[in-house]
Amino acid sequence: MGSLADIPIRLERGSEQSLPRQIAAQIRRAILDGRLPPGSRLPSTRALAQALGVSRNVALAAYDDLHAEGYIEGRHGSGTYVASDLPPLPRPAAPPLRHKARWLRDPVAIPEAVPADLPGGIAFRLGQPSLAPLSRETWRRIWSRVASDLPPAGYGPVEGDPQLRAAIAGHLNRTRGVPCGPDDVVITAGAIQAVMLLARAVLQPGDRAAIEDPGYPTARRVLMTTGAALVPVPVDHDGLRVECLPTGRNAPLLVYVTPSHQYPLGVRLSVARRLSLLEWAREHDSLIVEDDYDSEFRFDAPPLPPLAALDEHGQVAYVGTFSKVLTPSLRVGYLVASRALLDRVVRLKRLADYHTSWPVQRALAAFVSEGELDRHIQRARRLYAERRRTLREGLAPVIGWARLWGLEAGLHAFLELAPGLSAVRVAALARARGVIVSTLDDFSIGEPERQGLLLGYGGLELDEIARGTQVLVDVITELGEAHATK
Ligand SMILES: Cc1ncc(COP(=O)(O)O)c(C=O)c1O
To answer: Which InterPro entries match (predicted)?
Structure first.
């Protein structure tokens, strides 16, 4: 930026436009779009002519034009410069597309699910953790150590940094009972890349892929990008209704599930269903993708074994992430699966981004292996337990009109409304009073079977939860009483 040497000038000898005009036009454009800022030095006409393979007269004529237009100025004895008194230039921007291009298609035509923010409002946003429990001192110490080494000059291993893979394998053995070693772990750019790589590795257009309904819309869209036919499977208080999975020739090739904290209803897949899902997968030779996105947070409930800990046939691909336990901005997740499947995933990962960023992997490796992740989880659990208690207490008066689900784990809950109450109406009235909640509509295929609100509380302060739940109680009570007197 800022030197003509960096700005490619292309000349078309057969063009109707003369060579000086072509040169002047390209320099003018570089000045106007900011690539050549005011005051930049331009090469001498002799050097320019030589670089472009034209006669000096051609270069002189181009500069004369730009001079006459005021874009450039000569400084006596010191050369030619972009004029320093040009008016402020528009910011450089990519050229807009000026026609309806044939290639501009939307392969997955589903609207975005996130309700727009409301300035000053209280948003019970799903998937939002808090960084308050993170020790800044620890974070700074780990990063300064990472920063003291130069990054490798070449690419690193596609499967991920060996130290981080070992640290995650240790963490999963200890905390989740998932049997794996460092070689069974692949580091990804978040859980969603793991799901994308698995989908690409396994599915072809027309294959069937089962998903929870309601479920995680991003995973649903990712599966759709493969051209697979989606098979929605209903969810109840015990999680995915395994008995609704198609059997025989219609059995899906892949099933995506969130057993520890169903997204979005918040329920846990019962042990009986876990076993029957594994049995179903074995019988139909299908792959289970287990998304364990926020299992670190469990409250007053015994841990249930992940499917990956119960699997004996290599039919579960286990996906985890640092997005909830730390922050989604790190963009680091991981995947544990049979070596045969990982081999395919790794070949695709190489095509996607080669590997996840080295410094971030290094910092996380230290964070996990030095016990800092465990300490952070302990502190975060206490914080979220308080937030969860405030949510439950704040919503207590609404019992009768609504019922809370999914508080045993994770960072969000589902408030099911009594029959006759519309979740969309409650959400709209709450929004008018500054409180943002999602309804199941965005998470369901077709009309949701239940009416209710999704309440992410991980990222909210206690007073925000208290104020937000008060608004919800008011709105639901008003609507409930109006409904009752109808
Ligand atoms: C079900 C589920 N899986 C995974 C994630 C996290 O994905 P990532 O690791 O790509 O940030 C989320 C985040 O909202 C989620 O809801």
So the answer is: Aminotransferase_I/II_large, HTH_trans_reg/aminotransferase, PyrdxlP-dep_Trfase, PyrdxlP-dep_Trfase_major, Tscrpt_reg_HTH_GntR, WH-like_DNA-bd_sf, WH_DNA-bd_sf
Q: How far is Cα of residue 74 from the mean position of the Cα atoms in its chain?
A: 52
Residues 140, 146: Cα–Cα separation, whole Å: 10
Would you place residue 93 in the very low, low, confident or very high pLDDT band (cuts 50, 70, 90)? confident
Ligand 1 centroid–CA 192 distance in Å is: 6
Peptide bond preceding 214: is omega within 30 degrees of 0, i.e. cis? yes
For residue 213, report the phi and psi dihedrals to the nearest 5 degrees. Answer: -135, 110
Q: Which of 188, 222, 324, 443 to mutate to test the pocket of ligand 1 (most atoms within 8 A of CB)?
A: 324
Compute the half-sphere exposure of residue 65: CA atoms within 13 Å on the CB side of its CA. 16
Tens of pLDDT, residue by residue over 134-163, are: 999 999 999 999 999 999 999 999 999 999
396 alpha carbon – ligand 1 mean position (Å): 29
Atom of ligand 1 nearest to the CA of 332: 9
Q: How many helices (H) and strands (E) does the chain have?
A: 14, 17
Predicted pLDDT at 19: 94
Count of beta carbons in the 10 Å neighbourhood of residue 104: 8
Long-range contacts of 277-284 (CB under 8 A, 24+ apart): 277/240, 277/242, 277/245, 277/307, 278/307, 278/310, 278/311, 278/313, 278/315, 278/316, 280/242, 280/245, 280/247, 280/251, 281/255, 281/313, 281/315, 281/316, 282/313, 282/315, 283/247, 284/247, 284/251
For residue range 3-45, list pLDDT tens digits in order.
Answer: 677 778 999 988 888 999 999 999 998 888 888 988 999 999 9
Query: What's the 412 CA to ligand 1 centre distance in angstroms?
Result: 13
Mutate which of 186, 192, 211, 240 for ligand 1? The one with the most ligand atoms within 8 Å of its CB, which is: 192
Domains annotated for the chain, with CATH where assigned, are 4-82 (1.10.10.10), 122-129+375-484 (3.90.1150.10), 136-149+156-370 (3.40.640.10)
Q: Which of 195, 216, 289, 296 to mutate to test the pocket of ligand 1 (most atoms within 8 A of CB)?
A: 216
DSSP string, 162-215: HHHHHHHHHHHHHHH-----GGGEEEESHHHHHHHHHHHHH--TT-EEEEEES-
- Find the mean pLDDT for residues 412-419: 94
